[in-house]
Specification:
This protein is an alpha/beta fold and 420 residues long. Helix content is 35%, strand content 16%.
Length: 420
């Protein structure tokens, strides 16, 4: 067998089966693969540059290899485009955008959900649950509809209305969790939604639901889907980039990317792992670099340690980003490259800009920025974006001939900076 589960706590190795944590010590599990056998067989190397599904191309390094029984909406194979205008400003030799916003429900989470739900269906499971700020919930609802299964999604009161409505459209059951409250005895915020994230695994065990949180401590199968982004980057470039910039929420995307590049190195398709430059907002409920700090109280990102280790081992950096930096990056993506990302989708570009400011992006660097989600997911943020940058400029006319056009040679004012 090419796949097994390994406990990161007690180090027990077990055959691939439906375990979401270690049956011996309840520790965190990860998938392991027999790299020497995969390299010797050569099937992955023959298929990975094709245009087929992620299961056909990358099945030997996923927990479920059968493309014929995969639950898929055509996720993956997202564009990798050269960003010449941003390249001129940030000064790498080559800069590319990996447009994960082009996945079926508008974010990279489709890769993870497709893998997770496919594995669960192979075990005969039909009922799924997740707590989600929006993107995982959207994705699970769509893939549950595709597979004729049931999905239950818990969202916070802060989930954008467009994301909430998308879940409704697919027919999943939605529950809204009320906001938390500040405790009088501690300088910490008791976030009911984050508490629910951690309660989900035990709730699912009690109610025979599959937990679909895209974090390795909750579902070790789902996070394998993020590896396919790394595979596609190297397949499309024909080499491994020097730097990959990625957004950070809970940390699973960074961990999955790192794992994917290591997979390719282990089977001989690249000789290195790129530096990972990660971006996380300063106002995120807990920084992944602070989870072991005694002053860090309350909820913590589930994949924080995995992400920090991945960044450190790659020689990369974590940048904690101010809101103004994120909005500036979001505006610059739209104004210079025609890509409208949701704020989280712009974290990676903001991080790369911060990294360039340290002088660590040389003119020989090949860099890739992960644009993780579309701006159309959050129409309230889109309206704020348009207002902030004076982009609401509609005019009423009785006929097309009355329309006043700009002078032919006049260029519109750039809205590259946060202030517009």
């Amino acid at each position: 067998m090419l796949r097994s589960l390994e406990c990161l706590d007690c180090r027990q190795v077990m055959p691939l089966a439906e375990h979401y944590n270690c049956p011996e010590c309840a520790g965190e599990l990860k998938l392991s693969y027999e790299y020497a056998a995969i390299r010797r067989r050569g099937e992955f190397a023959r298929n990975w540059r094709s245009s087929e599904s992620i299961f056909s191309r990358f099945g030997e390094l996923l927990p479920h290899a059968s493309a014929s029984s995969a639950i898929t909406l055509g996720e993956g194979n997202t564009p990798l485009i050269r960003a010449g205008n941003l390249e001129n400003r940030l000064s790498p030799r080559e800069l590319y955008l990996k447009l994960e916003c082009c996945n079926p429900t508008g974010s990279f989470k489709d890769r993870q959900v497709s893998v997770g739900i496919t594995v669960a269906r192979s075990f005969g499971r039909r009922r799924f649950a997740v707590t989600s700020s929006g993107n995982v919930g959207n994705s699970l609802a769509a893939y549950a509809a595709r597979s004729g299964t049931s999905a239950y999604v818990w969202v916070s009161q802060n989930t954008p209305a467009a994301k909430r409505r998308q879940i409704d459209v697919y027919g999943s059951r939605v529950f809204e969790i009320e906001s938390g409250h500040r405790r009088d005895d501690e300088d910490a915020f008791d976030n009911s939604y984050e508490i629910a994230v951690r309660a989900l695994p035990s709730f699912c065990r009690r109610n025979r639901l599959v937990p679909m949180t895209s974090a390795r401590p909750v579902n070790p199968f789902m996070v394998e889907g993020a590896k396919t982004i790394a595979y596609e980057i190297c397949a499309d470039l024909g080499c491994c980039p020097d730097v990959v910039a990625a957004p950070v929420g809970g940390g699973g995307l960074v961990g999955g990317l790192s794992e994917g590049f290591r997979d390719l190195r282990e089977i001989g398709l690249t000789d290195r792992v790129p530096r990972i430059v990660a971006g996380q907002p300063l106002d995120y409920f807990a920084g992944i670099d602070k989870v072991d700090d005694p002053d860090c109280k309350g909820a913590r990102p589930l994949d924080a340690n995995w992400a920090v280790e991945s960044i450190r081992n790659s020689g990369g950096n974590l940048h904690r980003l101010a809101r103004s930096e994120i909005l500036a990056a979001q505006a610059e993506l739209a104004a210079t490259e025609g890509i409208f990302a949701e704020p989280r989708g712009a974290y990676a570009l903001a991080a790369l800009a911060a990294e360039a400011g340290t002088g660590r992006i040389g003119n020989g660097t090949v860099a890739v920025v992960i644009v993780s989600g579309t701006g159309l997911k959050d129409m309230a943020a889109a309206a704020e974006f348009a207002t902030r940058h004076n982009l609401v400029s509609s005019s009423k006319v009785n006929s097309i001939w009355e329309s006043k056009l700009d002078p032919e040679l006049e260029t519109r004012k750039s809205h590259r900076s946060e202030g517009g």
